[in-house]
Amino acid sequence: MAQLGSQWWLDGLGVSKAHQVTRGEGVTVCEIDSIFDTSHPDLVGADVSMGADLTHARLSDFVGDPQKDHGTAMTALIVGQGSGPDRKEGTLGTAPKARVVFVQVDLSKAPAARDGIKECADLGADVINVSLAGLGEPEAVAYAQARDAVVVAGTGNGGSSQEISDLAGLWGVLSVTGVDASLTFDSRASTAPATFPLSKIDPAPGEADRGGAAVAGPFSRVASTSAACKDIITPKVGGGYRGACGTSDATAIVAGIVALVRSAHPELNAANVVNRIVRTTKPSGATSLPSVPLGFGVVDALAAVTAQVPLVDHNPLGSCYTGGRGVWDERVKPSRPEPPVNTRLAPAPWKDPIPDVPVAAPAVGSAAPSTAGASAVASGPVPPSGVSPLVWVGVGALMVMVLAVGLVVVRRRRDRGADSLLD
Cα separations (Å) of 24 from 75, 219, 323, 337? Predict the structure, then answer.
């Protein structure tokens, strides 16, 4: 039987004290995963329901698959009720009175996270938990952000210091890396700074353009280099418990803390909820800027719920919907306002338009961009006088080859795999 005492984040990150203020009442968290089993004792009494089933899979389809426990485990980390005598055992979620709706997706298909995020947004989710690693889908994230949802995603478990999950790197996503019980970074978690072209605003195909790790949550109990990581104990299908660690767990725990903030501060829109999370982190909080490896720092549930935090006009992490990049790249300003609190747009044609990213003003002392030759660009390139047509044909062939290589890079980046679990 799992013991509540093993969940060090309840006391270590102020969750237990935050529960004296709120336990997540009135907030809907959407969990995207492959399969769910709500019959586990730790989920008895939790407000959980199926929001959308995109697979029609059954538990029997997952016999012998170690991933079958993942959705149940993540759900318990958010709304687990505990079990055993006086509910002193088992898993207690970070937001045990929140409502969880499931969106069941097929992890073998690349657009699983994208389709799941859209379904969550259409269900009116306040918080969307994506404990998956997969393709970055800015249209899906923009769709959710337009509906005032906070999207929380894990950075990944590859141990990289330069690259995080595509989804976690999108503007405005609350990306979560990992620490152990001493609040020390666990090197098995991926982290990264923001990466974007410093020479220009619009990246070329295949060029990195993303935010970095924003905050840290519970990845493990004891950091180590061991590949065997079994020290976060969560429910598994059919009863009993599994041992694991990873940014999947950290993301679900942080998603529950986001739900606590939304419950305690129903007057705040998603941008200000994210701002409270990042501006109340340990150890530096409001005075910090994000840096490797912990971003703004380790989440602090009590401070996020109770601290005095000034209001902001835009998500400090940027937004796929507003077109801004926040603290990651302040040259790029939002082109539209954040949605008001509790914006509940009806389901819309897929892929709400994303605004054009505004072009930054040229740096002081640099020449303004010239508009000369615009008509020539519009009508096609014209060979310079005095240049052999054969040379021009060669140049054209080279340009075609460069474009082809660029497309291959983009295709490889998009084909890095279907969505996968982060523990």
Answer: 14, 22, 30, 27
What is the pLDDT at residue 199?
64
Encoded tokens for 180: 């152990």
Q: What is the CATH number of domain 4-357+412-421?
A: 3.40.50.200
Q: Give the whole-angstrom CA distance, residue 256 versus residue 206.
A: 34
pLDDT at position 367: 33
Task: Report residue 413 CA to chain centroid gap.
Answer: 18
Residue 122 makes CB contacts below 8 A (sequence gap 6+) with 347
Distance, in Å, from the CA atom of 329 to the CA atom of 396, rounded to the nearest integer, reads 35
Grouping H, G, I as helix, E, B as strand and the rest as coil, residue 391 is helix
**CA pair distance 376, 386, nearest whole angstrom:** 18
Residue 367: both structure tokens together:
């020449």
Exposure string over 68-79, b if 16+ CB within 10 A, otherwise e: bbbbbbbbbbbb
pLDDT of residue 58: 73
Q: Which residue has the tokens 């958010």?
A: 78
How far is Cα of residue 191 from the mean position of the Cα atoms in its chain? 13
pLDDT for res 359: 37
Instruction: Identify the band that residue 225 occupies on the pLDDT scale cut at 50, 70 and 90.
Output: low
In whole angstroms, what separates CA 36 from the centre of its chain? Answer: 21
Rounded Cα distance between 26 and 13, Å, is 22
Give Cβ neighbours of residue 111 (< 8 Å, ≥ 6 apart).
Answer: 135, 137
The CA distance from 194 to 416, in Å, is 20
Place of tokens 């008509």: 375
| Residues ≥6 apart with Cβ < 8 Å to 106 | 34, 54, 55, 57, 112
**Which of 171, 161, 166 has the alpha carbon at shortest distance from 201?**
171
Burial label for 364, CB within 10 Å (0-12, 13-18, 19+), is: exposed
Inter-residue contact 32 to 113 (CB < 8 Å): yes
Amino acid at 126: D
**Segment 19-33, tens digit of pLDDT:** 999 999 999 999 999
Q: Which of 109, 111, 147 is nearest to 128 (CA)?
A: 147
Dihedral sign, Cα of residue 155, residue 309, residue 337, residue 350: positive
pTM above 0.70, yes or no: yes
Q: What is d(CA 57, CA 226) in angstroms, rounded to the nearest whole number?
A: 33
